[in-house]
Design brief:
four-stranded mixed beta sheet; alpha+beta; elongated; five-stranded antiparallel beta sheet; 771 residues
């Protein structure tokens, strides 16, 4: 009589310790007292834990329903005086026991001592090279992202040390010396960043772990562990990242003109033509490789092509910045200066823009693929009943009145209908009889495909044949018996379509819901019943208008000892409602076919979608009445947490890149601000200039990333369609533009960057005395 609840179950049931929980299973009910709170580390959702009582458990819960946990009645927790080693485990295995020993888990035996490992090794390696390759490419993109974010800082640092580096060169320093000076900054800052990042990362992981476990994973992650080897690898990766981020500024500083640097002149800043050519070639080759991967349905080739194309865009971003800067001639003063500074200092602006582009491209790509998959699944699936329709199956005929009253008392129903399905009896006993609606044509390509023909010509022929379409032929040809009153509740039909369907049923015809089931206003029914020669029953003489099997009836399963006949009747095709589904036939047609009607089924329409509390009350009431009840609801779309993480990461990268780029541009352009102050510029100009610089980085990067992300998603979607085409031709998934994600990355995040730059920038212009 006792039960323990998890914390989530207590909150869901509003049942603290000491309260009572009533459990209904069929006609049985039992009250349990809540005596404790427990937690299952592998399952942090709503869970009840009943005390083990063999008699009570067997009475209340059949064995088929006792499958909530991996353990069964024959599993035990055993406390042994000494640890159970691997040798002892093998001995117990020979006696028919499966043992999970903690001693074996913390000190596992060698692979050659485990028979199962020998089996797997003889079956071949289980390393999935494709997933490994994709993981390496994704990790490379993450490293590139960090390099692009850190690159502007080294570029501006080298720019501000231009005179110092020029003095080194003037006093005999070689280009190699200049490169090493800048690269040393990358090593030092990489080590500092690694130390700070490891400390902050470990602290953040420990602090955020409970939230992640309870909201995302719904499972505990185990003990708190820090792996020194992994942290050393992270530190080494940080140093490598610092070196890579400082490499371009180092080579740029080594090639600077010493005289121009000592005179504090920038010189002419242009993108070298060979780098422009390299970027264009990389984009072209990457696009071609991605297209080939999409056609071949090879995800590794596809991702490699996308990565190559994105690297080409990174290489070509400086030239693109210079091209966009030419549009500054027609803009106001602040954005014109911002574009000019971005063009003059491309080594700092281009990496920041590329970082935003890469982050936004990844989130837009994933969002578009997820939205497309969701809409494709929604298009390929149809509910059995319209949304809001209640369906209840009950066992005993005398209980129908109570079931109907319970439906009306627990749910906001507007009408309740009695429907059924065809059946029969032989010698007073229920027999296996059913009716199916035949398709008006077959798919000859299907037989060839099942025989092993997978040629492109066969797929093309199947795609052109509507009878081969999976969407149109999804209905099983099941039959529902109704005189016309429940058509709207069963199908969602309305208007003149509903009126004509009811007229057809009243005239003894059938209502079909797939164009493949009707020809020239007629439908063919296949009736399967026990063979009268094997067991003649009182109904064997009825149904004299039935004919031998019709073409296409070989798709209907006829059990042993049964026979099948067909009949053609008038039919009407519904054009409104929820689409393909069961065929509706009237009771008089069932009687004409020599069958009975089983009416232990109630269907009700609701005025509005039921609330969760109403659904729970309805379910409990149906269990108490030993009835099976359900309400057709829309499957709610829940945004994948991984997509939210990607969008949040893209937003943080965009804000961070905009802040870094704006701050570095302000530090590098302090002399220009002093000149503006000397010629009488307004103090607001400095804030307007910061806003414009943030707009250049966040806006241009988000725009490029959105374009790249949509292009990459189109390639992936096409590759998935090709893969589906190889299985069986059907309607391809239509790409869905992820408007919410685009609104975030194209509007909300750049606007936040602009507002942040405007609020955090001082209006006072600096006044400096030139020496």
């Amino acid at each position: 009589t006792e039960v323990a609840l998890t914390e989530q179950a207590m909150a869901w049931l509003n049942a603290p310790i000491g309260s009572t929980v009533t459990v209904h299973v069929g006609q049985s009910t039992r009250d349990f007292t809540v005596v404790g709170q427990v937690e299952f580390p592998w399952r942090l959702d709503r869970t009840l834990l009943f005390a083990y009582d063999d008699a009570a458990t067997g009475e209340l819960f059949p064995a088929s329903e006792r499958s909530w946990f991996p353990a069964s009645e024959r599993s035990w927790l055993v406390d042994t005086p000494e640890p159970i080693g691997w040798d002892r485990v093998l001995e117990l295995n020979e006696q028919g026991m499966v043992v999970a020993s903690w001693a074996v888990l913390i000190d596992p035996p060698p692979d050659e001592a485990v028979p199962l490992n020998q089996y797997w090794s003889s079956s071949g390696e289980l390393v999935v090279t494709e997933e490994l390759a994709v993981g390496v490419l994704v990790a490379g993109l993450a490293l590139l992202e960090v390099v692009l974010l850190a690159g502007p800082a080294f570029a501006v640092g080298a720019r501000r040390r231009q005179r110092q580096l020029a003095l080194v060169a003037a006093n005999g320093g070689t280009p190699a010396h200049l490169r090493r000076i800048v690269l040393a900054d990358g090593v030092v800052l990489g080590l500092i960043g690694a130390g700070a990042g490891i400390v902050l990362g470990v602290a953040a992981a420990f602090a955020a772990r409970p939230v992640v476990e309870e909201t995302l994973l719904h499972a505990r992650a185990g003990g708190y562990r820090v792996f020194p080897e992994a942290l050393v690898a992270v530190a080494g990766l940080a140093v490598v990242t610092g070196l890579l981020a400082a490499m371009v500024p180092a080579f740029t500083a080594a090639r600077q003109n010493v005289v121009a640097a000592l005179a504090a002149r920038r010189g002419v800043t242009r993108s070298r033509k060979r780098w422009i050519a390299v970027g264009v070639v990389m984009v072209g080759v990457g696009a071609a490789v991605a297209a080939g991967g999409a056609v071949l349905a090879d995800s590794t080739v596809l991702v490699a092509g996308l990565v190559l194309a994105e690297l080409g865009l990174v290489v070509g971003t400086p030239a693109l910045v210079g091209l966009v800067a030419r549009a500054g001639r027609v803009l106001p003063l602040a954005p014109r200066i911002a574009l000019r500074d971005a063009s003059r200092n491309r080594a700092a602006a281009a990496p920041a823009i590329s970082a935003v582009m890469a982050a936004v491209a990844g989130s837009v790509t994933i969002a578009m693929i997820m939205d497309t998959d969701r809409e494709d699944v929604r298009a390929q699936s149809h509910p059995d009943l319209p949304v809001g329709t209640v369906s209840v199956l009950f066992r005993e005929e005398p209980g129908s009145a109570g079931v109907e009253q319970a439906i009306r008392s627990t749910l906001p129903v507007t009408e309740v209908h009695r429907v059924g399905w065809p059946g029969c009896s032989v010698n007073g006993a229920i027999a296996s009889c059913f009716v199916r609606v035949l398709y008006n044509d077959l798919c000859p390509e299907l037989a060839r495909w099942q025989a092993g023909d997978t040629s492109d010509s066969l797929r093309a022929a199947a795609a052109a044949n509507p009878h081969c379409d999976r969407q149109m032929a999804r209905t099983s040809g099941g039959v529902v018996v109704d005189g016309g009153a429940a058509v709207a509740a069963l199908t969602g039909a309305s208007g003149d379509d509903l009126r004509r369907a009811r007229e057809t049923l009243a005239a003894g015809g059938v209502v079909v819901r797939s164009p493949l089931q009707i020809t020239d206003g007629e439908a063919t029914l296949a009736v399967v019943r026990p063979d009268p020669d094997a067991s003649a029953g009182p109904d064997s003489g009825r149904g004299s208008d039935l004919r031998p099997p019709a073409p296409g009836s070989d798709l209907v399963y006829v059990p042993p000892g049964h026979t099948m006949t067909t009949v053609t009747v008038p039919g009407y095709l519904l054009t409104t409602g929820i689409g393909p589904g069961s065929v509706i036939i009237p009771p008089q047609l069932v009687e004409r076919l020599g069958l009975d009607v089983n009416t232990k089924w109630l269907v009700a329409a609701t005025a509005r979608p039921p609330t969760e509390e109403e659904m729970e009350r309805f379910t409990a009431t149906m269990r108490a009445l030993d009835a099976l009840g359900m309400v057709q609801t829309n499957v709610p779309y829940q945004t994948d947490p991984r997509l939210l993480v990607l969008v949040a990461a893209a937003a943080l990268v965009t804000l961070g890149a905009a802040a870094i780029g704006t701050g570095l541009a302000a530090a590098d352009g302090r002399a220009d601000l002093s000149t503006l102050a000397a010629v009488g510029a307004s103090p607001r100009l400095r804030r307007a200039l910061s806003v414009s610089q943030a707009w250049v980085i966040a806006g241009l990067g988000s725009l490029l990333g959105s374009v790249v992300g949509i292009g990459a998603a189109l390639a992936v979607i096409h590759g998935n369609n090709q893969q589906d085409w190889r299985l069986w031709p059907g309607a391809p998934a239509e790409p869905m533009v992820p408007w919410p994600t685009l609104a975030v990355v194209l509007v909300a995040v750049p606007l936040m960057a602009i507002l942040g730059a405007g609020l955090l920038t001082r209006s006072r212009l600096p006044i400096e005395r030139r020496l």
